[in-house]
Amino acid sequence: MQELSRRNEHFTDSVIRRMTRISIDCGAINLAQGFPDFDPPKAMTDRLEEVSRLGPHQYPITMGAPNFRQALSRKCERFMGMKYDPETEMVVTIGSTEAMVDTIFALTNPGDKIVMFSPYFENYRAQTIMAGCEPVFVPLVPPTFGFDPEVLEDAFRQHPKAILICNPSNPSGKVFTYDELKLIADLCIRYDVYAIMDEVYEHIIYDGRKHVYMNSIPGMWERTITLNGFSKAFAMTGWRMGYLCAPAGFTDVMCKIHQYAIMCAPRQGQVAALEALRRAREDGCRDVIEMRQSYDRRRRLMVQAFRDMGLSCFEPLGAFYVFPGIQKTGLTSEEFCTRLLKEEKVVCVPGTAFGQSGEGHIRCCYATALSQLNEALERMKRFLDRL
Q1: Which of 238, 163, 225, 236 is nearest to 199 (CA)?
Q2: Considering only CA atoms, which of 348, 318, 124 is closest in space to residue 233?
Q3: Cα separation of 338 and 377, whole Å?
């Protein structure tokens, strides 16, 4: 038989999802995969139940149901202070993952380079390689996960097509400041580079900080593609509701890929997610605020626990992960996670899943039940005490 695609040789199965399967198989506590332990707002599930009975049941148009895109446009205008045309500048996708794949394929040609900060979400490298592109990594340096402007400009001097930024960042919890984004924006303008912004954690930011939108920086509206979704902000990762905002010329091209690869996002999910946007507009995003407060309590618990164990731990400013350093144990991140699973049945992700700059770290998701979180921390303390 003929060989399978060679491009698949350049990336592996998802480490995060593999660790999740292992946790299920052996009954371990799963701190690996980033999904909430609670349900979406009841108003949304009630609406989903209703629409599953009454409809609509047929295809929406490829770009997404018009009333849903109109609501998304109002939401973007409210938070960004800038309006996207729902008819020409927005596309509804099957999660932000599909939005990212479509974006990379629409934007690049094989051989193009994409700059990304490391540690990075594991999907980014695989998606870049799938498109025949070359990732160029710029390290985020612990303990604060800042970057060296000279190293970043060296990456831009390689003439990349785009820079890909997750803000707030998975896995480190870094939140990029206005000054950092302005520096990046200046480089994008100087070197004619697009900015692909993954902003699925835009509402999960702590300590009164404000999310800064790259497209709001002068000169960046025309060259920014913003990806977002409902998974994290409304605890509905399984619904796979994502969307993309970009200048009309880009969405025209991207929508061709979306059409032939996916056709359209599920209609029922759009109708129910519309309820989330309506509630957010009417009650000031109460569901999101309460969720963020819940995550904040878990964040503080986890950071303090790791520091009490003697591990270095950056206090995440956004998202719902901690990325503690385990260098003092003398174990690699792979060894640490393997032994922790075997000896205490707690599943974390080795930092190398997010690039070599993640070595010496592990990623733990705290979007899980407090009882499970406390039990996992007790087990990790026992494990460290034995080392």
Answers
A1: 225
A2: 318
A3: 16
Q: Are 93 and 269 in contact (CB under 8 A)?
A: no
DSSP state of 57: -
| Rounded-to-integer distance, Cα 330 and Cα 212, Å | 38
pTM: 0.93
Rounded CA gap, 47 and 269, in Å? Answer: 9
Strand bridging mode 224-229 / 241-245: antiparallel
Q: Which helix H or strand E contains 195, and what residues bound it?
A: strand 194-198
Q: Is the peptide bond before 160 cis (omega within 30 degrees of 0)?
A: no
Q: How far is CA 136 from CA 120, 185, 327, 343, in A?
A: 11, 17, 26, 37
What CA–CA distance (Å, rounded) separates 77 from 273?
A: 18
Terminal Cα distance for the chain, rounded:
50
Alpha-carbon span 358 to 363, nearest angstrom:
9
- Give just the sign of the alpha carbon dihedral 242, 245, 248, 251: negative
| CB neighbours of residue 157 within 10 Å | 10
pLDDT tens for each residue of 324-359: 999 999 999 999 999 999 999 999 999 999 998 899
Phi and psi at 56, nearest 5°, equal: -75, 150
Is the separation of the CB atoms in 122 and 15 below 8 Å? yes
SS3 287: helix
Compute φ and ψ for 57, nearest 5 degrees: -115, 0
For residue 12, the number of C-alpha atoms closer than 13 Å in the C-beta half-sphere is 10
**Closest to 10 in 3D by CA, of 194, 157, 133:** 133
Q: % helix / strand / coil in the chain, to the nearest 5?
A: 50, 15, 35
State the chain's maximal CA–CA distance in angstroms: 60
Distance CA 107, CA 317 (A): 30
Q: Cis bond leading into 143, ω under 30°?
A: yes
**Tens digits of per-residue pLDDT, 77-134?**
999 988 999 999 999 999 999 999 999 999 999 999 999 999 999 899 999 999 999 9
Question: Could you tell me whether strands 113-118 and 162-166 are parallel, antiparallel, or unpaired per DSSP bridges?
Answer: parallel
